[in-house]
Write a structure and sequence with these properties.
This protein is of the alpha/beta class and 434 residues long. The chain has three domains: 150 residues, Nitrogenase molybdenum iron protein domain (Rossmann fold), CATH 3.40.50.1980; 186 residues, Rossmann fold (3-Layer(aba) Sandwich), CATH 3.40.50.1980; 33 residues, no CATH class. The protein contains 17 helices and 14 strands. The strands form three sheets. The chain has a six-stranded parallel beta sheet, with helices on both faces. Strands 6-5-4-7-8 form a five-stranded parallel beta sheet, sandwiched between helices. A three-stranded antiparallel beta sheet has the order 2-3-14, with no helix packed on it. It is globular, with a radius of gyration of 26 Å. It is an enzyme of class 1 (oxidoreductase). Catalyzes the sequential NAD-dependent oxidations of L-histidinol to L-histidinaldehyde and then to L-histidine.
């Protein structure tokens, strides 16, 4: 089912590179297409949004308008079941509680000479969240992007998502947005939605930051938007790496690899193990479980193209390989997972132990599922409260405090050749005998 390679095999390096470089943000045709959409939205506003929605989503919204109305949300509540409503409220509660622990208070440090230094935190005014469309409603994306923004105190949360053929939005998506506290919803998807949020149109409100996953066109549009507004990250296809020893349950490991593979043909599912026996058992389990899945074609393509089982000589080598991958999702299924936690340096989310299945992190645990992909966990963090707040430094000096450091500051300014900088400090002491 999956290729089994030993770490001594020469293919290991190419396998690593194939996974990490499977998403490209520099396809010329796609970049040009997004640039054209961007320019049209910039010059034609709503008209361009309507035109692209008709072309890409096959729906004319000129009469209905782009914004979801209150009666549409009311109607959506009548279409969802009570079990879903209970589940999504548990999800929102857990995600909100987890992110509330990340909140930092503004602070000030007062020195003996009266100098005051500090930091002031303020929530962003307006944040746009992108929620992909498709055959199934991605309600978890609404929660993971919207709930932390709400906890952070964002003044206005604006959601964009592609409309269905009838010009509406999936009722489960609408209800989730209402439960999270989204303020406005636009029936717009694709690169045109990102351009509308970044630039503003007659209908669409310009935001300060855009968060949320999307296809390559959405990602390229977010890349283009950066500078006009802030963005969370450039997300590529999803990935999971399972780090396991002989104590791992092969049924659980196979199930978790498949849960990631069903996302997308470009998703990556990797097992790094110290056990050749486990490697073979997992492969057998993959075949058994794959036959029962509704999205088996997608799973199979993903596993064949971007999946692998890598057998390490020992646990230290397995850990080193894991850190090289810097996976979006890392499952640690070894005999004593907490004993090696300190050695795991690069991962978006770390799932510890036999019962921490990756999908529980997608939906209900509380930590964010918007995670760095493609090896960017080496330098990027999951979406968090700081993504929705800005920090201002506070600096107050007394004359006595400035006098202590004035000569040092002046000297640095002189080295940089900035006489006015130096003079700005010197002038405060001219003619003074104090």
């Amino acid at each position: 089912m999956l290729k089994i390679l030993k770490t001594t095999d020469v293919e290991i390096e190419s396998e690593l590179n194939k996974v990490l470089n499977r998403s490209s943000f520099d396809n010329e045709a796609q970049v040009e297409a997004v640039a054209e959409i961007w320019d049209n939205v910039k010059t034609k506003g709503d008209q361009a949004i309507f035109e692209y929605t008709a072309r890409f989503d096959q729906v004319d919204l000129k009469d209905k308008g782009l914004e979801v109305q209150a009666e549409e949300i009311e109607a959506a509540y009548k279409e969802v079941d009570d079990k879903f409503l209970k589940a999504i409220r548990v999800s929102i509660k857990n995600v909100s509680e987890f992110h509330s622990k990340q909140l930092q208070e503004s602070w000030m440090d007062i020195k003996e000479d009266g100098v005051i230094l500090g930091q002031k935190f303020e929530p962003l005014e307006k944040v746009g969240i992108y929620v992909p469309g498709g055959s199934a409603p991605l309600v978890s994306s609404v929660v993971m992007n919207g709930a932390p923004a709400k906890v952070a105190g964002v003044k206005e949360i604006i959601m964009v998502t592609p409309p269905s053929k009838d010009g509406g939005i999936n009722p489960y998506t609408l209800v989730t947005a209402a439960e999270v506290g989204v303020d406005r919803i636009y029936k717009v998807g694709g690169a045109q939605a990102i351009a509308g949020l970044a630039l503003g149109t007659e209908t669409m409100t310009k935001v300060d930051k855009i968060v949320g996953p999307g296809n390559i066109y959405v990602t390229l549009a977010k890349k283009m938007a950066f500078g006009y507004v802030d963005i969370d990250m450039l997300a590529g296809p999803s990935e999971v790496l399972v780090l396991a020893d002989e104590s791992a349950n092969p049924r659980f490991v196979a199930a978790d690899l498949l849960s990631q593979a069903e996302h997308d043909p470009m998703a990556s599912s990797i097992l790094v193990t110290t056990s050749s026996v486990l490697a073979k058992e997992v492969n057998l389990e993959l075949e058994k479980q794959l036959a029962k899945l509704s999205r088996q074609d997608i799973c199979k393509e993903s596993l064949e193209n971007y999946g692998a089982i890598l057998v390490a000589q020992d646990l230290e080598e397995a850990i080193d390989l894991t850190n090289q991958f810097a996976p979006e999702h890392l499952e640690v299924k070894v005999d004593d997972p907490f004993a090696i936690l300190g050695k795991l340096k690069n991962a978006g989310a770390i799932f510890m132990g036999e019962y921490a299945a990756e999908p529980i992190g997608d939906y209900i645990a509380g930590p964010n599922h918007v995670l760095p992909t493609g090896g960017s966990a080496r330098f990027y963090s999951p979406l968090n409260i700081d993504d929705f707040r800005k920090k201002s430094s506070i600096i107050y000096y007394t004359k006595a405090g400035l006098e202590k450091v004035k000569d040092d500051a002046v000297r640095i300014a002189e080295v940089e050749g900035l006489d006015a900088h130096a003079n700005s400090i010197k002038v405060r002491f001219e003619g003074s005998n104090e």
